[in-house]
Write a structure and sequence with these properties.
The protein is of the alpha/beta class. The protein has one domain: Aldolase class I (TIM Barrel). Helix content is 49%, strand content 9%. It has helices spanning 9-14, 25-35, 51-58, 75-83, 97-106, 122-131, 140-149, 151-171, 177-180, 189-197, 203-206; strands spanning 3-7, 40-44, 64-66, 112-115, 135-136. A 5-stranded parallel β-sheet has the order 1-2-3-4-5, with helices on one face. The two termini are 32 Å apart.
Length: 208
C-alpha cells in the first residue's frame, strides 16, 4: 500500500479555481511522511521531476517517486481548453519522462521510481524498466479503449500488452526486471542532449 501525493503546481495555476497557496509545502510533506502508516509516493502529473526537486523531497523523507513526465496527458492544455484563460505558451511546459527518469537515477539515491507520462506501448515500458524504473503506469491509451471499445477489448489489449512486455525481456535475454536493468541501454537524440547538458553521462547506461 502507499499514498500518492500529487505535485501539480502548473495545473493549479492553470485552473481558475486552483489552489495557489504553496507555502510550507516541504514541511507539510515531512509531517505526512512522519505520520503516514504507508509510504508516501511523490507524484508529478505530466511535468516531471528534476534532480533539484527530487533532492529536496528526499531530504524530507520521500523515497518513492512517480515521475509523471511530459509526454502523456497534458493537464495544462486540458484546463486551457476547459476555461480558455491560461495562455497556450505553457502547453509544452515540463520535463519529458525519459529525462526525468535519467535525472533521478543519476542521483544514485536509494529511491524507487515509477515511470508514467507517455507510456503508450509495451516497448515504451520495456525501455523505462531497462533504464531503471521499478514500475510503469499508463492511463490515456487504456481509457480510450475502455470508452470507445469496452471492457472486453481492454482486457484483451492488456493481455497482449503483458505478452509483448515479456517478449521484450526475452529478446534482451532477461529473466526478470533485475536482469533487464543490467543490460546496456543506448540513449540518443534529445534525451541524450538534455542529460548531457545537465552533467549526466549517458555512457553510464551504455557501459553496463
Amino acid at each position: 500500500d502507499g499514498l500518492q501525493l500529487h505535485f501539480n503546481i502548473p495545473q493549479e495555476l492553470a485552473m481558475p479555481e486552483g489552489d495557489r497557496d504553496f507555502a510550507g509545502m516541504l514541511e507539510n510533506v515531512a509531517r505526512l511522511v512522519e505520520n503516514s502508516p504507508v509510504p508516501i509516493i511523490a507524484k508529478e502529473v505530466g511535468f516531471g521531476f528534476s534532480q533539484e526537486a527530487a533532492r529536496r523531497l528526499c531530504g524530507v523523507g520521500i523515497n518513492y517517486f512517480d515521475v509523471g513526465g511530459k509526454g502523456g496527458t497534458n493537464f495544462v492544455a486540458i484546463e486551457d481548453r476547459r476555461e480558455g484563460w491560461f495562455v497556450h505558451e505553457f502547453d509544452e511546459w515540463g520535463i519529458p519522462t525519459a529525462v526525468s527518469l535519467g535525472e533521478l537515477l543519476a542521483l544514485e539515491y536509494p529511491i524507487t521510481l515509477i515511470a508514467t507520462g507517455g507510456i503508450r506501448t509495451a516497448l515504451d515500458g520495456v525501455k523505462a524498466l531497462a533504464v531503471g524504473a521499478s514500475l510503469i503506469g499508463m492511463a490515456g491509451p487504456l481509457l480510450k479503449i475502455l470508452v470507445n471499445e469496452g471492457e472486453a477489448v481492454l482486457q484483451r489489449y492488456l493481455q497482449g500488452f503483458l505478452y509483448r512486455l515479456k517478449a521484450g525481456l526475452l529478446m534482451t535475454g532477461s529473466r526478470n526486471i533485475g536482469e533487464l536493468q543490467q543490460k546496456p541501454v543506448i540513449i540518443l537524440g534529445k534525451t541524450a542532449q538534455w542529460l548531457t547538458i545537465r552533467g549526466i553521462d549517458v555512457k553510464r547506461w551504455a557501459a553496463r
